[in-house]
Amino acid sequence: MASNFNQGGSNGEGDDGAHSRPPEWADGLKQLYDSVVEEALPDSFKDLLDRLDAIDPARGKGAARDGRDTSQ
Amino acid sequence: MSDGPANDEREPGGSLSAIDKASFKRELTDVVPHLRAFARGLCGRPDLADDLVQETLLKAWAAQDRFEPGTSMRAWTFVILRNAYLTDMRRNRFRGEYDEGVAERILTAPAGQEEPIHLSDLHRALLTLPAERREALLLVGAGGFSYEEAAQICGCAVGTIKSRVGRARAALTEMLANGSIPRRSSDDDVAHSAILEELDEVAAGNGVSSRP
What we know:
The complex is a heterodimer. By secondary structure, chain A is mainly alpha-helical. Chain A is built from 3 helices and no strands. Chain A is 46% helix and 0% strand. The two termini of chain A are 38 Å apart. Chain B is mostly helical. Helices cover 63% and strands 2% of the residues of chain B. Chain B has 8 helices and 2 strands. Chain B has a two-stranded antiparallel sheet. In chain B, helix 3 crosses helix 6, helix 4 crosses helix 7 and helix 6 (147-154) packs across helix 7. The N and C termini of chain B lie close together (7 Å).
């Protein structure tokens, strides 16, 4: 469907090496990434960050166990 | 990721001052959106990605005495996330699944092409790449890391990263140009087994966590 199109002009897969100029879809990777970066942080993260203070990093193993419990 | 406390101002027991702890937490908080974005790119499904980030945050917190202040928190936590991802992949064999949320957003409509490329096309194509190429491309092409930084995160040579990024770009360009992006069901299995094959190699040979 949307992906089923004919290639028009020249594209980046030519003979000029693996990383010549970024392909035209390259900006899409940043868009995918940035769209997540810009999302509002879910409450579950705020809760977790709040909880961190109560976890003593010196007891690292205990903290890791807690993590496993909470991540189901 | 050294635990040698040689040039470390902090106490050998690993206990941090309240100030250190507060600034660590601030930095950690700041990178959470980036961790979510990296995880989403790696494993596709938002819920699994967020589980991975939560796991990463807890591991980072537990290991905070190994973080060197002044270095990149984003790079340091990406290593943790990456290793957690590889471990989960091997343990649970969860598959990269598509994020329906990006479904039909138009990414670009290059001149001379009948149909625009949709962000969802790119996303699906990305998820078919072997894990090591996908992460290399994500780090460099989406996360904005240099090849050198990406190499450090993945625990491999700079040339290896360049090669992986190049191959990933070529594969995506090919898929997007030809419309040969795997669709939802059956092709997943092919992509998935390819990912798992490469995973063994990645996890065995290049784990950053095993380096001194």
